[in-house]
Amino acid sequence: MQLWLILILIPILFGVYAQMRVTSAYQRNLAIPSRGGITGAEAASAVMRAAGINDVEIVEVEGQLSDHFDPVNKRLALSDANYRGTSLAAVGVAAHECGHAIQQKEGYAMMGVRQSMVPVMQFAAPVAYFFTGFGFYFIGSMGGWMLHFGIAALLVMTVFQLVTLPVEFDASRRAKAQLVNLGILDHDEMIGVNETLDAAALTYVAAFVSSLGYLLYLLQILNGGNRRN
What we know:
Elements: H1 2-30, H2 40-50, E1 57-61, E2 68-70, E3 75-79, H3 80-84, H4 88-106, H5 109-131, H6 144-181, H7 190-228
Parallel strand pairs: 1-3
Antiparallel strand pairs: 2-3
């Protein structure tokens, strides 16, 4: 029971805390307009233009915090509030996604590693999500091959999320530097950007910790079964 508390329950609570924190930080800074009145889309365009990136399309997508950079199709997608909004949160998130575009242009190694893992991750993710959700309640009745299958999928997910951490941290670092260097935001406005992006980064840490906890728990179950055999 104590092992379950450490490896499963605590990471779950950490994940809930991280999600609450990013939601709170984003909503708070979404209500604070930038002094320059520049939209997220305009900020993204300025950052990429300064980096010499002219082949990435900036598009508007539905949803909240559905922002992402698609390196395959070279498309930078910004959610409604961040594409059209002039808030500190909108500009910060837009610049963060530009950080990924700059990573691709400069051949950032960890981004390359992450992208190379996408195909296997697409296969492993559904299995891993099953074991971290419904499957967790049936582990005791599962055969050995299913346990090995779940461990393999969770291992892929855990490594993928570990590689994701430096990619996301580096993108935020690049974003913050560009916003100040290009004069898009004043130094004192970076407090809101830092709060938003740091909170978002915490969700990636929480995802990694959660996957690692589940993986270690399954390995412990497997190890216990091998000892009994």
